Amino acid sequence: MIEGTDQPTFNKKILLRDLYKSFHQKAITEDQLEELLTYISLLKNKLIPVEKWSSIPCDVPNALQIFKKYEYFKKTGTDQLLVDYDDMLTIAHQAFETDQMLLSKYQRKYDYLLTDESQDTSLVQHAIIEKLVESHQNLCVVADDDQSIYSWRAAEPQYLLDFQKVYPDAQILMMEQNYRSSQEIVSTANTFIKQNKNRYDKNMFTENPSHTPIHLKRLSDYTDQSKYLVEQISKAENLREIAVLYRNNASSILLIDALDKAGIPFYMKDSNNRFFSHWVVEDLLNFMRLAYDVRRVDIFAKIYSKFNFFLKKSDITKLQQLQNNQSVFTNLRKFIDLKDWQRKKIQDCQKRYKHIQKKSPFHVIQMIREDFGYEQVLRNMSEKLGFNIDYLVEVLNTIEEISKSTHSMVEFANRLNHLETLLKTSKYNKQKNAITLSTFHSSKGLEFEKVYLIDLIKGVIPSQSEEDQFKEGKKEDMEEAVRLFYVGMTRAKTDLELLFYNKRFGKAVGPSKFVLDIKNIIKPPESYQPKPNKTVMVEIKGKGWKSKIPYNPNAIKEPATLKTGLKVKHRVFGTGEIITCTDDILDIRFAKYSKTLSVATCLENGLLEAVD
Questions:
Q1: Closest CA to 563 of 551, 580, 585
Q2: What does the DSSP 8-state code read for residue 533?
Q3: CA of 578: how far to CAs of 141, 357, 594, in Å?
Q4: Is the pLDDT of residue 545 over 80?
Q5: Which of these, 243, 293, 240, 222, lies nearest to 456 by C-alpha position?
């Protein structure tokens, strides 16, 4: 209720939760809710007409129908007119379009307008500003098109590039001096951002002195990253001048686990990180809770669909009606009408549950994933409902890694609760001597003496979807990823370190394309251009002989060309596909075998040629 009135209050998130549940008969996840909120804002801020709403993608099932119900409820579901923040913008825009007197009033009221951080301004906001300055054209815009990183949140970077089409008399002044960063950082970042073509041609410079070179650090394994960061940060005194930046919030979880164990305080910029309340984490805990009392029908009812038993909701209703103090597995086998293969699965699971309390949390999670079929259930759900299976597996792998340091399921659950509390309360460390953890997006506007950019591997930044879009000739997403990385780099004043690794959760991974870009900027690769009449002598390891290979003008000469998935022709081994690619080695799968080859040898001797 609103204080002093009898009017009920309405909460946008609660309303959308209720609407989602009415469509799907289950609760919306926090990730889905955030995506739904972003989707609704996008439709309004981009002024997308009703007839084109269906063309805007959203991974939340029935997102458009939920949005329409939401709009309908705001107008008819109560005797009040409900308006959210996005409505304030669209209503203001519509009012200025239809009421000339109102528009004239505000045009006269504001003789001069200034918009700051205008690269983050949405289309509807630009449209409102256009109307306000229509009569006098007194507008000053401060923006950096190279820092436009919020198009997914309806920012309109193209508007800046077309600014003079809207305001033909505008004068554009380039502010190209960087007052924050060292010579090495500014020079490298300036070269890096130039790979984007849809931008103002600028040359950033600084009068700051030279400092340390940008450091590229390759580690063997993902888990080594947290160990390395803890080791390096432990040597520092002024923690407030250190930041660790990453693309996705999930990157912070193992790091805060390691920082906590090392006693290093941190401030998390995105303290609303909901990792520990993710439904996959809750599922795992419920699997474990059931181990302490297999008669708990209430717990089983929350995860029955995750056991791969293929039970129906009516089966659970019948199970709940039984009050015989027996195991849920026994009651399922004896009193529920099931197929023989279902009973066999349930019996096997019941046997494993008898021994589950004696096992370590790490082994319990492995049982849940493999023996109980939980991971396969997630894959099936993702295929059916459009979930991001890679992210769900990432959650599983992260939780499994945390479990390795615990000895009982109670200790494991307490550890998760402790880390969640630590994450939420880290906001109180903002003014203390603590390092800062932040996503690239949230770091914009911040600056630190020392910055670490982590998890710089293929598929994270740029993401796989950004790379796929780029291959299809759609460059917008890749250019935004470039801008995002540029923002991360330029948070550093003097020291910048880029971290990547060879393996992640047991799988080989390659470095980010951006890491290779930076490496080539810092130390440009030699251009391998042997003379046309040159004959190359190549020693084939294990063969005990040398082969004369003539010069190939079509040979791959630049390291950046070599990428995972590229089909190549080797002058000795034939045609194959690059499976793993690092700065030093290539794993190539040929028709009859796989080979690990030296990148330097292949390039220097012109051994590889790209094939369609």
A1: 580
A2: T
A3: 47, 44, 10
A4: no
A5: 222
Structure tokens at 89: 């913008």
Report phi then psi at 307, rounded to 5: -90, -5
* Tokens, residue 333: 């086998």
Using alpha carbons, list the distances in angstroms from residue 142 to 113, 150, 159, 160, 178: 11, 16, 13, 10, 15
- Which pTM was predicted? 0.78
At 7 the pLDDT is 55
Predicted confidence band at 414 (pLDDT cuts at 50, 70, 90)? very high
Q: Say how many C-beta atoms besides its own lie within 10 A of residue 442's C-beta.
A: 15
Distance CA 102, CA 94 (A): 11
CA distance 316 to 319: 5
How are beta strands 242-246 and 448-453 bridged, if at all?
parallel
d(CA 476, CA 470): 8
Question: Is residue 126 within 8 Å of 156, Cβ to Cβ?
Answer: yes
pLDDT above 80 (res 365): yes
Q: How far apart are alpha carbons 315 and 317 in whole angstroms?
A: 5
Alpha carbon 214 to its chain's center: 24
pLDDT at 99: 94
Q: What percent of the chain has pLDDT over 90?
A: 44
Q: For position 535, what pLDDT does the model report?
A: 44
Residue 544, phi then psi, degrees to nearest 5: 75, 20
Task: Specify whether the CB–CB gap between 419 and 276 falls below 8 A.
Answer: yes
Q: pLDDT: is 513 or 535 the higher one?
A: 513
State the virtual CA torsion across 243, 244, 245, 249 in degrees, nearest 10: -120
From residue 566, alpha-carbon distances to 143, 353, 463, 577 in Å are: 39, 46, 17, 6
CA distance 395 to 250: 8
Residue 167 has what DSSP assignment?
S
d(CA 384, CA 53): 23
Please write the tens of the pLDDT for every residue from 585-595.
888 888 777 78
Answer yes or no: are the C-beta atoms of 564 and 471 closer than 8 Å.
no
- Supply the pLDDT for residue 272: 67
272-287 mean pLDDT:
88
499: helix, coil or strand? strand
Contact between 260 and 232 under an 8 Å Cβ cutoff? The reply is no
Write the burial class of residue 453 (CB in 10 Å: 0-12 exposed, 13-18 middle, 19+ buried): buried
What average pLDDT does the segment 222-231 reach? 94
Give Rg (Cα) of the chain. Answer: 29
Q: For residue 181, which phi and psi values (nearest 5 degrees)?
A: -100, 165
